[in-house]
Design brief:
single chain, Serine Threonine Protein Phosphatase 5, Tetratricopeptide repeat, 4-stranded mixed sheet, 27 helices
Length: about 575
């Protein structure tokens, strides 16, 4: 990496830090403008120094993006004079804001903050879009959203303004978090640790309720009234938690330690409200309330064992006896109104448990546990007994072994284990579907896939379409993929992965302009407007150099999109200027 490239990469960190301070009204930050200015200078200076150090010392190990965010947050939150409270900042005896009062920050402003953070997450190497896991999480998330809407927790304005998008983070720690503007993060470590979809629903319902109740907006508003620089530290701390829980939590907790006691009480009230609302949402969505109890048990046990950093969720969502007692009380009341389970519902619950065990295994394998761990998973799958393989634990072991073997490029072993799984799950349609997707993945990687096995009529889920597209692209059948994905992106224009695959499909057909335009749309979907505009201008350049390479309709679309994206770039630059 060149010096200039390294410096540019590190300056992203300084830019993110500066932008996080823009959430505070300017008339309330006049007293600390010198501090904010120094903060930006320090951030950019450190960014440049780090960039030049690693560029000039290539033998040194470079920190991942989130590690560098963490380092800057810690430096900013502990360096004098920034770590010192402003005179009188914490001495006022202002009353606690009620949870029902309106927050000052508007949904549109909160969405802008969230988009800036989301753009950073998209650029992080640990962000992942695994279609199978995304579909599984969405199968839990969408019923929660519907229940929140039906209960009146999610109003029409928030639903329209916010993103309601979940990021999967390749990280083995147990964590989930909500960001401004309706963006949510889920670590693979959480999916691999929870024992059922009900436990995962308990966590997601809690995070959803933080957003529907405008907790983040209220927190930003209160922090901007008391300690504006802390907003930046807390948002960046949330990002840093994605990779380094100890340091990220230190940034957040260090900032909170400087706040007044009323802020800490406010946070506890928010947690209790999210518990209460989230519990009602998950019940109405059809999940078992026992998921809350079992999840609390896991968190409480981790807390008692002096959490070693693998449960950062505990730091941003601290347990206390009052929360646990209230949860137990709600469970007892809910149990009185639950009808006895029918045989059909018990069968569905058993099937759901098996499917979750498989998805937990997938998350564990995809979290990059290391080559030795992958070999161990394969060995355990091969050594499992026949009787054990029919249980949820045995099925999970086989699934992990098959996927791990494919990651190790031992495709014959992966195919044998997948075939064994198909035999075991013949009477479990949801899990059998997941295994067939796994087999499609393995055969595509092994180069043994046959086009005759792919039936678009049966491709009803996003994972079906994405994995089938990858398989057909491997066979060079770009036209079939393009025909199917054009329909998908028309209905879901923010699906970056679909646009990326569509770009590949056009490339196979030597349709360069359409391929470049699809690549530009993928950049737009990931909020990278400058990169998208570069690609659209490249497409316009191709059309000028070879007018016959694109028809009138395609050329008109590219010109129109270039104007639209150019406006987005200018609006973003103008907003940055206003914020400064």
């Amino acid at each position: 990496m060149s010096v200039d490239a390294a410096v540019a990469e590190e300056e992203i960190v300084g830019d993110v830090i500066e932008r996080t301070f823009t959430v505070m009204p300017h008339h309330k930050t006049m007293l600390i403008q010198p501090y904010l200015c120094k903060t930006h200078i320090l951030a950019c200076g450190i960014g440049k120094s780090l960039g030049r150090f690693f560029a000039l010392n290539p033998t040194r190990q470079r920190f991942p993006f989130t590690h560098r965010l963490t380092l800057l947050v810690l430096l900013l939150s502990t360096s004098a004079p920034f770590a010192q409270p402003l005179p009188g900042a914490f001495n006022s005896a202002s009353a606690l804001p009620t949870l029902g009062e309106n927050s000052q920050i508007t949904p549109a402003a909160e969405r802008r903050i969230g988009e800036r953070i989301a753009a950073s997450i998209y650029r992080d190497a640990d962000y992942m879009d695994d279609p199978v896991l995304v579909d599984y999480v969405q199968s839990i998330w969408l019923p929660l959203m519907a229940a929140a809407r039906a209960r009146g927790e999610l109003n029409a304005e928030l639903e329209e303004r916010f993103s309601w998008q979940i990021f999967l983070i390749r990280d083995r720690t147990v964590n989930a978090f909500a960001l401004p503007g309706g963006y949510f993060g889920v670590h693979l470590g959480l999916i691999s640790t929870v024992s059922s979809r009900d436990e995962l629903a308990a966590v997601l319902g809690h995070e959803l309720s933080h957003v529907t109740q405008r907790h983040i907006a209220r927190l930003i508003t209160q922090q901007s009234q008391q300690t504006p620089w802390m907003v930046g530290a807390m948002i960046l701390g949330a990002l840093a938690l994605g990779k380094n829980p100890q340091a990220g939590s230190a940034a957040i907790v260090g900032g909170q330690a400087l706040a007044a006691q009323n802020q800490l009480n406010f946070s506890r009230d928010m947690e209790r409200e999210a518990d209460r609302v989230g519990f009602g949402v998950m019940l109405d969505a059809g999940f078992e309330g026992s998921g809350v109890a079992s999840m609390f048990d896991k968190l409480q046990q981790a807390s008692r064992l002096n959490d070693n950093g693998s449960f950062p969720y505990l730091r941003t969502h601290p347990l206390n006896t009052q929360r646990i007692a209230e949860a137990q009380s709600r469970l007892q009341l809910a149990a009185q109104n639950v009808a006895p389970a029918s045989a059909a519902s018990e069968r569905e619950s058993a099937q759901a448990l098996v499917l979750h065990a498989m998805m937990a295994s997938r998350a564990r394998v995809l979290s990059d546990p290391g080559i030795d761990a992958l070999h161990t998973m394969v060995l355990e799958a091969q050594q499992g007994t026949v009787s054990d393989s029919s249980s949820a634990r045995g099925v999970a072991r086989l699934y992990a072994g098959a996927l791990a073997a494919s990651r190790l490029r031992d495709y014959p072993t992966a195919q044998r284990l997948a075939t064994k799984l198909e035999t075991q799950l013949a009477g479990n349609p949801p899990s059998l579907h997941a295994v067939r997707l796994l087999r499609l993945e393995i055969d595509t990687l092994a180069g043994t896939i046959q086009a005759s096995r792919i039936d678009w009529g049966l491709a009803t889920t996003r994972a079906d379409i994405m994995l089938a597209s990858r398989a057909l692209l491997a066979l060079g059948r770009g036209q079939e993929v393009a025909d199917r994905l054009q329909t998908l992106v028309a209905a879901h224009p923010n699906d970056a992965l679909a646009w990326q695959l569509l770009s590949q499909a056009y490339g196979l057909q030597n349709q360069r302009i359409r391929a470049v335009r699809a690549d530009a749309e993928a950049h737009v979907a990931q909020l990278e407007y400058t990169g998208a505009l570069d690609r659209l201008r490249a497409a316009q350049g191709l059309m000028r150099s070879d007018p016959s390479s694109a028809d009138f309709i395609e050329g008109s679309i590219i010109d129109a999109r270039a104007r639209q994206v150019d406006l987005l770039v200018k609006e973003q630059a103008l907003q940055d200027k206003i914020d400064r």
